[in-house]
Structure formats: C-alpha cells, structure tokens
C-alpha cells in the first residue's frame, strides 16, 4: 500500500518538479550534478539511484555514507544538488552531513523522507515525502521501496528538465511505475517458497549476497537485513568482484544468494555462479520468470515476476527482505527490535 500510494502521487502529475516543492522548477533547472548522502538502507537506495540518475540525466552522481562525509573536506559545487535520504528524517549523521554540505558551498538540498516536519526535511529546500508513513520496525523495509520510487521520479524529472527524455519516454516510464505494484504483489506471493529457504538459512553462520549493476545495492540490502534481524554474518559483493577476494570464503558451508534478473548482465552473473559451484558453494538464486533457470544440484531457484526493466531493483528487494524476515522468525529473534539498534540514530 505504501508503494502504491507513493506511485499514485507521482502518476497524478508525472515527472514534475511540483512533486519536490514550490520552487523546485528553478532549483532543479540549475543542477549540474547530484551528491547523495544517507546511512544504512537509505544509503543503498542512493546507490541504486546513482545508476538511474546517470543513465537518464547524463549528470554525474556521487553517493556517500553520511557518517563519513560529515567529517571531511569534500569536493563541493554550488550547482550540485544535495539529496539526503532518511526514513526517520532524524538520523544525526545525515543531518550533520547536510550541514557540512551547506558549509562546503552546496546551494540546493532535497530531502527524501517518510516523516513530515522531521529535522532533515525542515533543513532542506526541497522535499519528497514518501507515502510509507513511520516504519514500525527498526529495520527499514517499506521505506526502501518508496525511497526508490522517489529517486526514480527525481531521475525522470531531472531528465525531463534537461530534455533528455521525450514525452513518449516519460509515458513509458510512468506506465512501468503503474505496473509496479502488481509485480511487487507477485514477489510478495513468493513467501511460501522463501519461507522454505529461510529454514535452512536460520542454521547458517554466514551468507554471501551477489548482484551486479543496478542489483548490487539489492545484494547489499539483503545482507544488511540478514545481519540486522537474524545476527547471521552476511556480506554483499558485486558478483564480478568475487575473484578479487571473497571467492576464498566459498565452500560447502557458505550459502550464496544471487540476485539474477533477466537483464544485460545475466550471462556475466551466470559465470559468477559457476565460480561459486566449482568451490562447492550452495546457490540460492532469485531469477525472473522469463529467464531459463532450473534447480540443479546445489542450485535453488525462486522465480520473481517477469523482468520489469529499469525498476527491477524494487521488485527484487522484496524477496531478500522476506528471506531475512523468515530466517529471523525461524531463529526466534525480534524482527521489530533488533538488539543494539535504535529506530532513529540520533547520537
Ligand atoms: C538509517 C538506518 C536504517 C537502518 C536502521 C538504522 O535510518 O541506518 O537504514 O535500517 O534502522 O538506521 P534513516 O536515516 O533512513 O531513518
């Protein structure tokens, strides 16, 4: 519902600056680059957005963890748009990074946030409020998918302002957004199969998550969720990076989750999967319905909906979050209140 409501708000006006505030049109028209600042899951939304922004707008886009950026003398430019992403709008590191960006000379700041009138949107010039409302649990879930819709909309809006997409392109992207809740529902319907996988994950000590391109941040999100709510040690890598180190970790005891959408990188991902199987690693693959994967020895496959193109990371975030959720239930941990974590990190 959070996702459908956020998409509905976008569909009402299309890729329009009005979605971001009263003087958004003039501010966004000036933008020559984008600097994204965020923490945790929100940072992964930013990493995904980098692909969309650079591909659609041709603008450079940097993404940095706010707790690092706030303490350094970063490169800055008055015509770069600062984009902060925060579910709560109160995360201190993100707030301080925004202040730092202002000190360094960035003129325009846009906040993507769930919570109206929280600190970060109040300190920003432009705001997109997702329609996700407040997260019940500590770990962000619906915030992530709705942040991604907001960021895709920002990419589309900047592209439109810069004359990089035609009216037909815009209509096609909006059509993809309109169809998204149906694909996400399909992904949610995979719950029984994911529940079955989660039973074996619950007994593991470690897990590795792999993705490529737009789906590398989704591998990061899957690993973070597993860490946060099950306390299983999980790492995520771009699949092409396996041979540069993490392959040394792979043996029969290492489950490897692969985000394998039916996109232009699929053949590359398949060869990375072979590297894992050759070392005895057990593969858990999320593949799209329209690709040709079947279960084989040591390879388990769950089919997400038909490939949805550029919005695919939003669909693929659902099964990795469900996997962590069911593994947590199987281990008996508190999914809403993980140990050592706070809902808003304000220190
Ligand atoms: C950032 C964040 C969450 C994470 C956990 C701790 O919060 O790192 O992504 O799941 O809840 O805080 P926010 O800035 O998005 O509110």
Automatic annotation (TrEMBL):
Keywords: Aminotransferase, Cytoplasm, Glutamine amidotransferase, Repeat, Transferase. Its EC number is 2.6.1.16. It is found in: Cytoplasm. Residues 24-164, 197-338 form the SIS domain. GO terms for molecular function: glutamine-fructose-6-phosphate transaminase (isomerizing) activity. It catalyses: D-fructose 6-phosphate + L-glutamine = D-glucosamine 6-phosphate + L-glutamate. It is an enzyme of class 2 (transferase). The active site is at 343 (for fru-6p isomerization activity). Its main location: cytoplasm. Homodimer. Catalyzes the first step in hexosamine metabolism, converting fructose-6P into glucosamine-6P using glutamine as a nitrogen source. This is Glutamine--fructose-6-phosphate aminotransferase [isomerizing]. It comes from Crenobacter cavernae. The chain holds residues 262 to 608 of 609 of the full protein.
